Structure formats: C-alpha cells, structure tokens
Amino acid sequence: MDHSALEQIIVCPACKKSLTKAVDLYTCIDESCRSAYPVFNGIPILINPKNDLFEQKDFETKGDIFFKTYSNPLIRFLKDIQPDVTFNNVSEKNYLTISKILQSSGHIRILILGGSVDGVGIKHLKKVLKEGDLLVETDVSYGPNTTVICDAHEIPFASESFDLIIAQAVLEHVLDPFQCVREMHRVLKNSGLIYAETPFMQQVHGGKYDFLRFTDLGHRRMFRNFREVQSGLVAGAGSALTWSLKYFLTSFANSKKVDRILSYGGTFLFFWVKYFDLILNKTKGSIDAASGLYFLGKKEEGYLLSDKELLASYRGFRYSSEK
Ligand SMILES: [Zn+2]
C-alpha cells in the first residue's frame, strides 16, 4: 500500500478541501470547515462530523458495525458450512473483462466502495495489479481489506482521482444511491470505468441497512451519466427462487430463534434450486426475473443517456400497454 499516493488524493468529505495531517489526526484547511478526522489503527476515519448515520467514535474500536459476528459456536459452524444461495458465474468473467480493459493503462488507481471483504470474483482483478498501482478499499466497517473508513455519500477523495470504481452489492445498502453514484462520477477520471452489481429480486439481507432494489432499466438510469460498456444479470431466476423459497420459510417465524432455524433450514433445503442458473444466467427471458444485475460503464464528459434511449434499451419480453 502506497500511503503517499493515498494521501495525495484524500480530501475533507464535508467540503472537499485539502486536509493537513499531524500524527493521528487530519484537519481540514478550510477556515469555515475545520473538520477533524482521527486515524485509528492506521486507518483514517473520514466520516463527516455532521454525518447523520455514522459517528467517528463508532470506529474507535475494531468492532464490526455492518457484518454481525456470532459468538455461538453452533451458529458459527452452520454459517461456515452453509452453501451460498446465489449462483454467480458472472462476476468473475466481468472482472476478467475489466482487467483486460485496464491492462493497457499505466499505473491504475482503483476505489472499491464497501470493500472491507472481497466481493465475488474480485481476486481476478487484484491479481493483475502492478507495482505503483493504487487500490483503496473503503467501507463503513472493518474487514481484512479496509484502507479507509468513509461513507459513499461523501467520498473523501479529490475529483478525477480514480481509473476504476467498484460498488459490488453496495448500492442497496445506502440511503441515497443516486447521491453515491454522483460522488462516484466526481472522483472517477474521464474515460474511467465504473462497475456496479446491485440486487433486483432479493429479500432483505442487510438487516436494517437494506433500502432499495432496481430493475434493469432502473439500474441503468442511475448510471445515465456513464456510457455503457456492458451490462446484464449477475444471477438469474434460479437464485431468485432459492432466495424466495428460503424467505417463504422464514416468513413463518414469529421469533428470532425460529427465524434462525428456518433460515438455515431453508438454505440447506433449497440451495440446489440456484443451479437452474447454469441455464438461466444465459437466457434473455431472465433479465426481468434476475436476482441481481450489473452495469459496467465509462465516464465521458458531457455524456447523458436520455430517457427515450433508456426505454428503447429495454431487452425483456414483458409487453407494455402501448404495443
Ligand atoms: Zn472541510
């Protein structure tokens, strides 16, 4: 990790002006702002003191805010052995595509939002990183990868700092994903790439930190300031059905204990249904029933997808009343 490269692009999340650093404290240089940001265990806590949701002191201890850790050994064991309910053979291919596009660039700078732990397939992208590249993995939680604590609504980096920004299974967990995408657009270099994976047909999975879902066109519109490179589904209707069957079971719960039993029961009973996605991840009919969707786009100054173009890009088979 090249800390000097990181410090060159860090700015005040509140006002976007520069920060000065003294031992374990960053201070904003702007006279009217003067916000201060502590560094805990070598990790800058770049959370705006006026942030409504997170406080800097939440991060004083390395406890996890987002991912719950379980003390019960039986639950930990079940968590370790339980199969995944999503069949995803797409992310890996997408990261290979992205690494191919970036290969010809010189030193690349990558920002991962919600990057405290590795997302599916991202190891294929990390493998191609070279000496002199910069990888900044941010989150509102501590994980093995966390470089910086920050809120995606107020990204603490200077404009046009990155060649690639990734938000994998993140935008459903933020209060205002449109604001986050505006921030991603700001900190991305011109011609830089944006990659997002966001659920469509998935039940609540982040506890209280779970707010929104997107259809294919809803997802595309959120990135209307980016030219599309490629987009599609991450997991199809097989995964969506696995999720639904599992949550059909948990809907019978009236207590946390019963929910937990039904949740593990549902996973072990129905995980195999996801393998229909071996077929359904390739069919055109899946796009309107997908478990999750992705968008890979490019920043082009002045580009805007019109809403007419958006509607013309519909690729599902559902009819609308006009036709
Ligand atoms: Zn400031």
TrEMBL record:
Span of domain Methyltransferase type: 146-195
SUPFAM superfamilies for this protein: S-adenosyl-L-methionine-dependent methyltransferases, Trm112p-like
Pfam family, one: Methyltransf_11
InterPro entries named among the record's database cross-references: Methyltransf_11 (IPR013216), SAM-dependent_MTases_sf (IPR029063)
Keywords annotated in UniProt: Methyltransferase, Transferase
Entry keyword Repeat: no
GO molecular function annotation: S-adenosylmethionine-dependent methyltransferase activity
UniProt KW Transferase keyword: yes
GO biological process, one term: methylation
Gene3D superfamilies, per the entry: 2.20.25.10, Vaccinia Virus protein VP39 (3.40.50.150)
Name of the protein this chain belongs to: Methyltransferase domain-containing protein
Protein's organism: Daejeonella rubra
